[in-house]
Structure formats: structure tokens, C-alpha cells
Design a protein that fits this description.
InterPro entries: SAM-dependent_MTases_sf (IPR029063). It holds the Pfam family Methyltransf_23. This is Methyltransferase domain-containing protein. The protein is α/β, with parallel strands linked by helices. The protein has one domain: Rossmann fold, CATH 3.40.50. It is 23% helix and 35% strand. It contains 6 helices and 12 strands. It has helices at 2-7, 26-30, 37-42, 57-64, 76-84, 120-130; strands spanning 12-15, 22-23, 48-51, 69-73, 89-91, 104-109, 131-141, 148-157, 160-161, 165-170, 180-188, 191-198. The chain has a 7-stranded mixed β-sheet with strand order 5-4-3-6-7-12-11.
Length: 199
């Protein structure tokens, strides 16, 4: 799995046809939470599900704040690294059955994970099922005016390319969030975040 290789520290990029390749922020994912991550962490005051948790920096930081948190990722390397840093994570697809369905207070979609599955509207419908009423989803989005890009992406490292998979990038304005109310949008450390409340 190419994402596992990226998590092992190899310089990696995400290719999406029609756009410039994006270098994956592996070093930031592996480091402790800081900078823009404070927006994500401050938005969580109760049980939080981190979808696409990667190596678990947000899960570990929330637990250090005495906030119950669970990471979910399809990558075995992500699960291993999350548990090594004291976090809790399970290897699962977000569209599979998950613990605490309908009872989570917060769901995080950080680091571009609104792109999971290549259909942000479908992903937000799934998140709606996971949250309790008045729960929130905090999404790392593209800067305003970027629009919505949907297509096939792949992870590429030096000398190696993975399989194509559906992915998406979107700004907050272009997201279809049925059953949610937009609470806020903010920029921090060059990253953009938006928060929706479940109706």
C-alpha cells in the first residue's frame, strides 16, 4: 500500500489529473499536533472520531487533553503508528460499520480527508449518520474560491506509483452538506477549516 510507504517517511506526492501534484505533508502528520491543528483540537470537547487519522497526531493530542478520541484508517501502518504514540485506532473504512454510530460529538476530516471516496457529499451523509444531533464535523478545506475537484488520484513516491483511487478536493462553499448548518470557517497557519453542526 503506497500510503504506508509515505507514512514511513518517504517523500510522496498525490497526483490528481488536471492539477499540479501535491506533496504529502508526511513530516507534519508524523510530528506532534501544532500550528493549524489547534483549530481542530479546540473544536472538540467530547467524544471525537478522527476519520483518516494517519499516524495519529490528532488522536494523541486529544487524549492528552482528556478528550475521548478514536482514529479510523484503512492503512495498517497508520494504525500501528497511532497506537505506538499512545492513541487508539481501528483499521476500518469509514463507510463500514463503526463503533458508536450516531453517538459521536465530533468528527474530524483533517489533512484533505474530505476527499475520501471521491464524493464529499456522500462522505458528509455518512458523517451525519455517525454524529449525534447537534454534533459537529470539522473539515480541513481548500482556500475559498478553489471550487470542487473530483477525479482519480494516486500516491507516488520516488520511483514508485500506486493504483488510482477516487479522490476530491473542495473549498467550504462548494460542499453539499445536507442536514448540516455551517457554523464557521477560519484560516490558520496557511490552512483553511470549516465546521458544520448536525441538524
Amino acid at each position: 500500500m503506497m500510503f504506508d510507504q509515505a507514512l514511513q517517511g518517504r517523500p510522496s506526492w498525490l497526483d490528481l489529473p488536471g492539477t499540479a501534484p501535491r506533496e504529502l505533508s508526511v513530516a507534519r502528520w508524523q510530528a506532534d499536533a501544532d500550528g493549524g491543528d489547534s483549530v481542530l483540537l479546540d473544536a472538540c470537547s467530547g467524544p471525537t472520531l478522527d476519520v483518516g487519522c494517519g499516524p495519529g497526531r490528532l488522536v494523541a493530542a486529544l487524549l492528552a487533553r482528556q478528550v475521548q478520541a478514536l482514529g479510523v484508517d484503512v492503512s495498517p501502518e497508520a494504525i500501528r503508528r497511532t497506537t505506538e504514540r499512545g492513541g487508539i485506532a481501528i483499521r476500518r473504512d469509514v463507510f463500514d460499520l463503526l463503533p458508536g454510530e450516531g453517538r459521536w460529538q465530533h468528527v474530524l476530516l483533517a489533512d484533505g480527508n474530505i476527499g475520501i471516496g471521491g464524493d464529499p457529499a456522500a462522505l458528509l451523509r455518512r458523517v451525519h449518520q455517525l454524529l449525534k444531533p447537534s454534533g459537529t464535523v470539522v473539515v480541513e478545506v481548500e482556500q475559498p474560491g478553489s471550487g470542487l475537484t473530483i477525479g482519480q488520484a494516486r500516491v507516488r513516491t520516488e520511483g514508485s506509483r500506486g493504483d488510482w483511487f477516487p479522490w476530491a478536493w473542495s473549498d467550504a462553499e462548494s460542499l453539499t452538506a445536507d442536514g448540516f448548518f455551517l457554523l464557521w470557517q477560519v484560516e490558520r497557519a496557511g490552512r483553511w477549516f470549516a465546521c458544520w453542526e448536525r441538524l
